[in-house]
Write a structure and sequence with these properties.
Length: 608
């Protein structure tokens, strides 16, 4: 495959993967919110402390819930007190449902029924500081609108110049809120902080309107800093502190910091999965483009017969840094042709013998091959029948099993490991340019996943970012898995050598071309078979020799790659007989603090 086609496929694959991940990161999270959500939450706070809330619950499975509620972390009371509390006033429940409220003292009030037994059932099911609706027959699929009214008695702080209120509308245990709209007074208010910071706050006339959406268990709070006249009409519990404005600003900064980091991680991840294909394209154009050479499509002559077959396999079959078993079998055929070994067929389907004739070679890999044949054979002769017998004995005898496993390990080493230093004489490894991107994206992915578990409030932002960073890592790994020269380059004129060997392999793979240009001397067929085997097309040469009735012994090779392969298949496939396969809680009262986690109120919507 040409480099142009390789980079085109990688660009297309990574681009499609990036776009798909980007779209799924936006579309999928809202689909994972469960079978109960708040479609809409509207809250209106007056300067006198009256709070009106409207929840629109969306039940998506009939018969699953019989109570839809809103809990509070602060004490819920039925009468006004001089302590911090949420005073329940009224509830407007949908027709066919029963409204209820259970205060901090576990007293229950019921609305919309005359059945006196309902109060007892609700008291057993509900938690303290809870307001909601009850349907003893369970709710059907659909939406249910509940409006409640309270008077809040919050903690209020003052330093003599500024006043402070931090009201928490939902804590860390609630279902998702698809839409939020909170309205608070703006008179005498100098600064408003909203939590989560993903919500937006807009001032219109004498009110601030806060809108957005909130994930499951994400704190919803509004913190306000006003002048000394702010909150004067609110029935709160006052305390004195110092430097209200600075405390609020500092707490807001530190609370928002993880959100800022999570948002940046999300933006980075989205940008990375979309830009990764173009970054890979840039790396290719910067480091990987080769000089142009004109080489014929088919080449019938061996480009460089001075190269050993194992070197051809390493350099020109696929990746210039990867060696495989075709190089090993081609080496055996070549060593037979050069009379270092004698390969003798015992008849079709009856096996092969390999005899060592000479060890006169200076090539390190060929020396390793001879040493391996000597180790596996007996007195310099390797017989395929002996290997079969060894493997059969290995199924019942421990000593034979250990020998077979040792031979298997040696054979794996012979068919996959060679000295790759010659590769660097021919090419520059382009993976060096990709490794930093793989490493950085992988580290960012792991860190973001860990952060999502450590910071559960920001998890709804961090998990999609982590998934996108994982996709970005996969994109770079796809490029890294490409041939090492794709983002590197061939040195000097060696890219021309690569094209010529590709043209030779192309020729050997085309039966029509072989018929058109058959070699005049039979030994050339042997060379074709040797180097064709090294390039992974030896079977095509064998098929051509059979079709054209070429006498194999006269070519200098006694058998093709299939015959050589049959010798070692029992060892390669041996498996020892003992190594088979296998197959919504409540929080504390809180309140009066600074920052998103320190607000008064809390709780949130849920169902049971």
């Amino acid at each position: 495959m040409s480099e142009t086609r390789q980079i085109t496929l990688i660009f297309a694959a990574t681009l499609v993967l990036g776009i798909a991940a980007f779209v799924l990161a936006i579309v999928v999270p809202p689909l994972l919110h469960g079978d109960l959500v708040v479609d809409s939450y509207e809250a209106k706070l007056s300067d006198t402390g009256t709070l009106q809330e409207q929840y629109i619950y969306n039940v998506q499975n009939s018969g699953e819930y019989r109570m839809l509620y809103r809990s509070w972390e602060a004490p819920l009371v039925f009468e006004s007190r001089n302590t911090t509390s949420i005073q329940f006033v009224s509830i407007d429940a949908p027709s066919g449902t029963i409204g209820y409220a259970m205060n901090s003292a576990l007293a229950v009030r019921v609305f919309g029924t005359n059945d006196t037994s309902v109060s007892g059932r609700i008291s057993r099911l509900a938690d303290s500081n809870e307001v909601g609706i009850y349907n003893p027959s369970y709710f059907s699929e659909g939406t249910y609108t509940v409006t409640t009214t309270y008077v809040v008695h919050p903690p209020l702080e003052t330093d003599g110049t500024h006043t402070h209120l931090n009201l928490k509308f939902a804590g860390t245990s609630h279902i998702p809120y698809q839409y939020v709209m909170i309205t608070v007074p703006a008179d005498n208010i100098e600064q408003v902080y909203v939590y989560p910071p993903t919500l937006s706050a807009d001032k219109t006339g004498d009110t601030y309107t806060i809108t957005g959406s909130v994930a499951e268990n994400e704190i919803i709070a509004v913190e306000m800093v006003g002048n000394k006249d702010a909150f004067a009409s609110m029935p709160g519990v006052w305390s004195t502190t110092t430097d209200v404005a600075s405390q609020a600003a500092s707490a807001s900064f530190w609370y928002d910091l993880p959100y800022t980091a999570a948002l940046l991680a999300g933006y980075l991840a989205k940008a990375l999965v979309l830009l990764a294909p173009f970054l890979l394209l840039l790396l290719y154009y910067r480091y990987g483009r080769e000089r142009m050479f004109t080489v014929t499509t088919y080449l019938s002559t061996i480009p460089n017969p001075d190269l050993r077959p194992w070197q051809v396999n390493l350099l020109f079959k696929g990746d210039a840094l990867e060696f495989d078993e075709d190089g090993y079998y081609a080496t055996l055929l070549d060593m037979h042709r050069r009379k270092l070994i004698a390969v003798t067929s015992k008849g079709e389907g009856k096996g092969v013998k390999i005899q060592i004739l000479s060890e006169a070679t200076s090539d390190p890999y060929e020396q390793r091959v001879l040493a391996f044949l000597k180790t596996v054979g007996k007195e310099g002769v390797l017989d395929s029948d002996d290997i079969k017998e060894l493997v059969n004995d290995a199924r019942t005898r421990v000593t034979s099993m250990e020998t077979a496993l040792r031979f298997q390990k040696n054979l794996t080493d012979m068919t996959h490991r060679v000295d790759t230093s010659i590769s660097y004489q021919y090419m520059v490894d382009g993976r060096d340019h990709l490794t930093p991107f793989v490493a950085v994206s992988a580290v960012l992915c792991v860190v973001t996943f860990m952060a999502a578990f450590v910071m559960p409030i920001q998890a709804s932002l961090l998990f999609p970012a982590a998934v996108l960073l994982l996709v970005a890592t996969v994109q770079f790994v796809i490029a890294w898995a490409a041939p090492s020269t794709l983002f590197g380059h061939w040195k000097d004129d060696h890219y021309k050598d690569k094209l010529e060997w590709d043209a030779f392999a192309h020729f050997l793979s085309d039966m029509a071309m072989i018929r058109k240009y058959p070699p005049e001397d039979l030994p050339m067929w042997g060379e074709w078979l040797v180097y064709g085997t090294a390039l992974g097309v030896g079977d095509k040469v064998e098929a051509a020799m059979q079709e054209l009735n070429i006498p194999v012994p006269d070519t200098g090779v006694p058998t093709g790659v299939m015959g050589m392969n049959s010798v070692f298949v029992p060892i390669m496939t041996f498996v020892p007989p003992n190594q088979g396969g296998s197959g919504g809680g409540m929080g504390g009262f809180g309140g009066g603090g600074f920052g998103g986690g320190g607000g008064f109120g809390g709780g949130g919507a849920g169902g049971r």
